[in-house]
Every structure is written in C-alpha cells, then in structure tokens.
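Hallway conversation turned thread

IA: we were arguing at lunch whether anyone had actually written out BZIP domain-containing protein end to end. Turns out nobody had. So, for the record, here is the sequence (120 residues) and right after it the structure tokens. Reply here if something looks off.
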Amino acid sequence: MDAPTQARRYLTPSATSRKEVPAYFQKMARATSLPSDDEEDELTEEPPAVTATDQEKIEWKRRQNTLAARRSRKRKMQNVQRLEETVERLTREREVWKTRALTLKHLLISHGIICPEFRD
C-alpha cells in the first residue's frame, strides 16, 4: 500500500475517456429521479449515422447504456416487489394452516385421540 505509483502514460487517448463529458450528461447528472411506470424511455433514438463522428457514436452508446441500466434497475425493483408480495402471501397462508392444524389437534385431543406432535 505504501509503494510509490507512477502516473499511467498512454500512447493514444482512450476512446471512452470521460474527460469530456457532453452537456447532455451533465444535465442528466443533476436530475436523479427515476422515470415512473407510465413514462417511456425518452431517449430511444436511431443509431448514429455512418458519417457520425466518433464522439457522437460514443455519446449515443452511453445514452443506450444509461437506458439499459435504467431498465435493469426497474426490472430488479419489480422483481423484489414481487418476491416481497409472495413472502407476505405465503406467511399469511402458513398462519392459516397452522391455526387449522392446531384447531384439529385440540379437537382430536378433546375426543381422547392421540395426536402426533408437529413442529412450529
């Protein structure tokens, strides 16, 4: 950890270098709200033309990546919500069956029938 490090020197600049952030992305960084369920992705657009500059292609690719990440986060959030609802439903169902089993157990015991013990 205490070893000295040297700055990296590249022969050519990286094609995806973040040194020049387009103004479009600077505006997006300030707006951190996620789109609602009804809101469609507003950035769906045609791929850049063949004559587009490298910078335009990089910007388009970044926008597409942003949208893909947004969709992925949305799918993940929906999946977590679905799983939470399933857990709640199964917990309620388990309680119902547990109550029924205990009721039947007490009924059997009250009639003098030996009932096996079962775990909670």
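OS: looked through it. The mean pLDDT is 79.
IA: good, adding that to the notes. Helices lie at 23-30, 54-110.
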